[in-house]
Amino acid sequence: MGIEIRQLQKKDFSEARKFAIEGMHLNWYVDAPFGLYWYSKYFWSLEISRASIALGAYDDNKLVGVLLADINNEKKLFNSIKHRIMISIAEFIINCFAKNASDEYHNANKKMLIDFNEKNNPDGEINYFAVNPQIKGQGIGTLLLNRFEEMTKGKLIYLYTDSGSTYQFYYHRGFVESGKRDIKMIISKKEVDLTCFLFSKRI
Q1: Is it the case that residue 123 has pLDDT exceeding 80?
Q2: What is the CATH number of the domain that holds 169?
Q3: Are 158 and 116 in contact (CB under 8 A)?
């Protein structure tokens, strides 16, 4: 049957959330399985509530990849009270117990976006892009991005990534490196040098 790209279904939210644990480095910030589960729930609730585009890649009706995007002035697809409650509770817990875990990373992204916005007027952000980590390298990300670009022609889109990811993928797809910051993070109790990127593209 091959890979089919269509709107993400609510029944697959739990599976989509799991892709971010490894694919988007959530396991960098939380070691304990229980904490990682709840942190990934928070992260998913935050990003799905922002999404005005939510694409799923399906292989024989099984979810294998996800792309979420927040496009300016477009209706959010899944901004529910349930997600807002989850976000509020999780942010309270994070501020109490794990506030410093990702501050360096988020501050770097924030500063890059401020610099980018001084010269650009972006139309939206790809805010969640992950493929099942067990089956990477099969072109699923490319199929998702192709469909997204068909839906957003003429728009200036940006996204964040880092040197711990396959950031080279975006160079190959015509994205421009529009921001770059070197940081140090504590990952698994070790200090690690990391480069954060902001990529952009006029679709």
Answers
A1: yes
A2: 3.40.630.30
A3: yes
Quick: pLDDT tens for 34-51: 667 777 888 888 899 999
| Tokens linked to 161 | 């990534």
Domain total in the chain: 1
The whole domain housing 36 covers: 3-202
C-alpha dihedral, 182 to 39 to 12 to 130, nearest 10°:
10
- Residue type (1 letter), 83: H
Q: In angstroms, rounded to a whole number, what is the distance separating the alpha carbons of residues 24 and 194? A: 14
pTM metric for this prediction: 0.88
pLDDT at site 192: 82
- Per 3-state DSSP, the chain is made up of helix, strand and coil in percentages (nearest 5) of 45, 30, 25
Reported as type and span, the H/E element at residue 68 is strand 62-71
